[in-house]
Amino acid sequence: MIQNKITQLETESSLEDEEEKAIGTNDFNSFFSYTKYNVIYLFSFNNKKNYIILLFFLSDLIKNQNDVYLLLTAKAVKKASREMKDIINSHDDQMEKFDTIQQRYMELFQDMKRLEREHAKMKKRNEQLQKEKDAAKSDLSKANSMKHKLENICRELQKENKRIKEESKRLAASEQQKREELSSKFENTIWEIKSKMEEDTDEKKKRAEDNELLKDKFRSFLEQYELREKHFKSVVRSKDLELQLYEAKLQQQKQLTEQEIIKVNSLKEQIETFTKTEAELRKQLNVYVDKFKQVEETLNKSNELFLTFRKEMEQMTKKTKKLEKENSSIKGKCDTMNKNILEMAEERARDQKAIEDAKKKQAKLENLCRALQV
Questions:
Q1: Residue 219 to residues 222, 225, 226, 228: CA-CA distances in angstroms?
Q2: Of 34, 97, 120, 160, which residue is 20 to 30 A from 223 by alpha carbon distance?
Q3: Higher pLDDT among residues 138 and 40, named by residue
């Protein structure tokens, strides 16, 4: 492409010389601008001799909001400017000047392509991180839903345990009262039987039958009590299994929360990396601003070119501001996620405490059952 451009320039120069001879003009000036890769060659022709007053710059290296990535410093810009002036002043031959400038441009063009590849990789990585962030947000939402379900189940379990405890107390009091009444009746009956046996032998059989009937009633009462005791044990066993299930679910929820915390920390590190990259890009933007000022001083006669470059610089500034807003938005989302994780940890601690209270209540119920069995 560069060699073709050189050939084109030579052809145009010869045509200009022939035209100057034809019209008999001593002074002829022409201006040529080439912007294919944002490299501008300015040629001034005077008395059939070409003097290159070249000044080139790269304005299309910034293609979107993340394309400020040419690693230059203020010293490098000043050095490049001095090199261009030295090239223009040190060579008398036009082609020598042009070859030297062409070589310098090719070096900068290769740097630009290398940085474009690096930017493409960075953009791809940024998209991947965005997907991971969305996935982490979805997992966090699922974890919150599971947490609310576990809280509702724990509250229901506490109500059920309270109801069972009250029912156990009521049954124990009722059974104790029945035992006392039965024992009192049994003793009274025995005393009555003994007194009647002494008074009348004919009534012994009847009393024996009454005694057997009383024994049968007492035996039936004991069987009913044993059935109630078995039913109570089965209820306690089922509640114990439910409590174990809730503990397993709570442990699973704890593991999911720890995984979310790890993902959030990873996102924090990536955001810090992007923040550093943004600072470097800001420095590079300042370098471009300095370079633009130098170009502005040199290209006083190129008003159209200057206005075009200024528009591009304004677009680049707008894109940089947009990048800053997006970075601030990502930081805000990260802070919100950290706050949600802290709240989840506090709620998990409260759930653990509620489970421990339920275990204590269960232990009390078991002790009460053992006391009833005795």
A1: 5, 10, 11, 14
A2: 160
A3: 138
Mean pLDDT of the chain: 69
Range with the lowest mean pLDDT among 58-67, 149-158, 280-289? 58-67
Domain boundaries, the chain: 2-120, 121-373
By CB atoms closer than 10 A (0-12, 13-18, 19+), residue 303 is exposed
C-alpha 78/C-alpha 293 separation (Å) is: 12
Burial level of 170, CB count in 10 A (0-12/13-18/19+)?
A: exposed
Are 69 and 115 in contact by the 8 Å Cβ rule? The answer is: yes
Q: Model confidence over 137-190: pLDDT tens digits?
A: 888 888 788 878 878 887 887 888 788 878 878 887 887 787 788 777 777 777
Q: Are 91 and 100 in contact (CB under 8 A)?
A: yes
What whole-number distance in Å separates Cα of residue 374 and Cα of residue 363? 17
- Separation of alpha carbons 314 and 285, rounded Å: 12
What CA–CA distances, in Å, run from 25 to 16, 21, 48, 50, 268? 11, 7, 10, 16, 71
pLDDT digits (tens, 9 = 90+) for 213-250: 877 777 777 787 778 777 777 777 777 777 777 777 77
